[in-house]
Structures are given as C-alpha cells and as structure tokens.
Design a protein that fits this description.
Blueprint lengths: L37 H74 L3 H11 L9 E4 L1 H18 L2 E4 L8 E4 L4 E4 L1 H11 L10
Parallel strand pairs: 1-2
Antiparallel strand pairs: 1-3, 3-4
C-alpha cells in the first residue's frame, strides 16, 4: 500500500481512491512477572513460621510468667495456712495432754490420798525456816489422814491443822505469821502449765 496520499484530481479513470493508511500501533508488552521459585516460597514459609513462633514464644512466656506468679502466691498462702494448721494441731495436742494429766492426777489422789503427805513436806520445805505455831489448812478428809500420819510430829513442832472443805483434796495451804504457801491443786497446776508457757486453768475440767 502506498505511503503517500494521491489527490483525487490526479487519479486516472482506472485508479480508485483509498483512505490514507494509518501506522499500526505496536502493542506494549507488560513487564515480565518474576514468580518466586519453590525454594523462595519455602524460605518465605519458614520465615513466617519462625516469626510466628517467636511471637508466640514471647506471648507464651509472658503468660507463663503471669501464671507462675499466680501459682507462687497460691502456694505461699497454702504454706501459711499449713503452718497455722500445724500450730493449731500442736496446741490442741498440748491442751489434750494437759487435760489427761489433770484427770490422771485427780484419779491418783483419789486412789492414793497419802500422796498429800509429799505435798505437805514440799510446802513446809518452801518456808524460809521451820516456823512454830504454823497452820496447815486442808480438806477435812486430808486433815484426818495428816493427823494419823504426822500428828505427833506436827504437835511437837507446834503446828495446828485446820479444816477447809473448799480446798480440793490433794492440796493444802501453809500459813505462818510472816508467810503463806499456797499448795492447793489449782495453784500448783497453774505453776506447772505456766512453766511451759500455757494458761490452762485447773477448774476448766
């Protein structure tokens, strides 16, 4: 096809007029797309997995630390409760032992009332010196036992025996002009329990 346009007036009878030709515009080729290789895809996958693992690891460690602190507080509280329980059990056992000792002492005095004699000797021994005209005050039943066992000795020393049934059997009170020894059961019991740091009254039983 001719590149120049022939005017219509110059055309012969045998020439046909044609529209001028236009240059054909070449299609613009798109830039090539570089698809990742299998190795690159695997690398991307591994990198994403590693990043996700690290993020999950950090979050997991954070949660684990929080949970560990919570468990530590629970264990600390439990340990304190166990210590309190141990102390309470020990105190309960001690109270039980004191009650048993108290009952055994009362039964022993009923079975062997002559145990009073050692109490009287101990009470006399607590005096600064042997006082004449001293008074022994004790239960009437114990007074009869004392007169039978130590009557002559007390009479020779000028001691007098007085009866007071408000004093429980097994105990006594020694009175002189200058001092008084309380050897009643409640008082002696109080001294025993006080020596081990307890406060267990005799009359509680």
């Amino acid at each position: 096809m001719p590149d120049t346009v022939t005017p219509k007036e110059q055309l012969t009878a045998y020439q046909r007029w044609e529209l001028p030709a236009f240059d054909v515009v070449k299609a613009v080729e798109p830039p090539p797309i570089n698809l990742p290789t299998a190795a690159q895809i695997e690398h991307i996958h591994m990198q994403a997995h590693e990043e996700g693992y690290q993020a999950g690891y950090v979050e997991g460690m954070k949660q684990a630390g929080t949970e560990a602190q919570r468990i530590a507080k629970i264990l600390e509280s439990l340990n304190k409760e166990l210590q309190n329980v141990d102390q309470q059990i020990a105190q309960d056992l001690l109270n039980l032992a004191l009650e048993i000792a108290k009952q055994m002492l009362q039964q022993a005095l009923k079975i062997k009332p002559e145990l009073l004699l050692s109490v009287v000797h101990a009470a006399i021994g607590e005096l600064p010196y042997f006082n004449q005209n001293a008074h022994l005050v004790l239960h009437s039943d114990d007074a009869a036992l004392l007169r039978t066992s130590m009557g002559e000795q007390l009479l020779h020393a000028g001691w007098k025996v007085f009866e007071d049934n408000q004093i429980e059997r097994g105990g006594c009170r020694v009175e002189t002009a200058h001092s008084q020894i309380d050897a009643t059961l409640p008082k002696r019991w109080q001294r025993v329990v006080a020596s081990i740091g307890q406060d267990n009254a005799w009359l509680e039983s």
